[in-house]
Fold this protein.
Amino acid sequence: MTQRKTPKLYQKHILIIGGSSGLGYAVAELSLESSAKVTISSSSPKRIETAVSKLKEAFPDAEVNGHACDLSGEDVESHIVELFEKVGKVDHVVFTAGDALASMKISEIDLKKIQTAGQIRFFAPLLVAKHAAKYLSPGPESSIILTTGTVGDHPIPDWSVIAGYAAGLHGMTRNLAVDLKPIRVNCVSPGAVETELWDNMQKTAKETMMNQIAAKVPTGRIGRPEDGK
């Protein structure tokens, strides 16, 4: 009889920054299905409370915790430090946090808008990697996983600012893998996935974009967070 293997994530501690909704929440579910310990984080204490409650209801015997961490302000680094102090040792860090998509015409761009657009999508993951290195179990069994968008490879009108950060995250990831070795650092570009990030778009514009993307992809529809399961 073949001996049943222990799940790879069994009792591993996974911190998911952006884990209260969308892709991050799906990662939390998948991790708990593999018997991992999960801590989720987002900017909203209420969303954290709701997400943790739902996860505990679905996985009554699992160890699930949540801590709010606001990545949007100038004191972002101190908030990241506080988060890791609360969470403690981890085996994997997954960064899926995002904010409203900062599409804008070239004529509307200024330095402040450029900086704001990169706060959560570029500056925050770099600072997370800096401090995660102190809390991750040493060795190649530990990892940091970042997420970015396909706009870095496939241009979209009025998305020059976002595209710059999306492409830049690939370079950041490759260099972090060298700087943090032997900890593994990877970047995932899942393509268009229907999550709450799109909710700020005008309804007609959102539907038009979703239909255009769906017509181009092999599945014939936009991705869903649960597709990774």
User: Anything to note?
Assistant: The domain at 13-193 is CATH 3.40.50.720 (Rossmann fold).
